[in-house]
């Protein structure tokens, strides 16, 4: 029986150096040859993953943690964040000297010219510090935003904005998402189009933003380098991403 394989990027497909291991690329290609369908499921924006999509010949992806979904190069679901709510978050964050970054499917911009927290976290994705653009969120559909603060400063945002999820992905940064939206809701949207059942899906991930996806999928695989909570939820734990963990999981599950 063929499966729908849902692949996180950072720490799952890409190793700790943000490189695609040859073993992972070979595994993806072999799985496709064996009839399995592959999809990316990531917190990243579409513009951030174009090169990887081309290299792996993947045309189906869940991005922005479920806010923007594409099947066979056609957008099948878009859900922008509320501009009024974003304005309130920006005002709240500015009073605390916390910068905000906005993303649509094409680009990423900042509310500030430069900030070391933005530089640190965005560089970890191999992207430069975004340029400052005034009122970008008022003139464009924003599918994801980031607020930059440390963990001990995060709870105030949960308290002040109960309709929003703040999901930490970096030491100094949190994703800003609508409450109730995640990669798992993206999966539900996608399988309606692919014809697969939940039981035929396998999710591969490592981070906190993969938790709900792994709970939703029929079977889930966590990387050994993953967050403890992610590994706790997984059906199976494979080796570290730097030790060919993804390819080993594919072999273990009989996908290749």
From TrEMBL:
GO terms for cellular component: cytosol. Keywords: Hydrolase. GO terms for molecular function: magnesium ion binding; phosphatase activity. The keyword Transit peptide does not apply. PANTHER family: PHOSPHATASE YKRA-RELATED, PHOSPHOSERINE PHOSPHATASE. This is Cof-type HAD-IIB family hydrolase. It comes from Planococcus salinus.
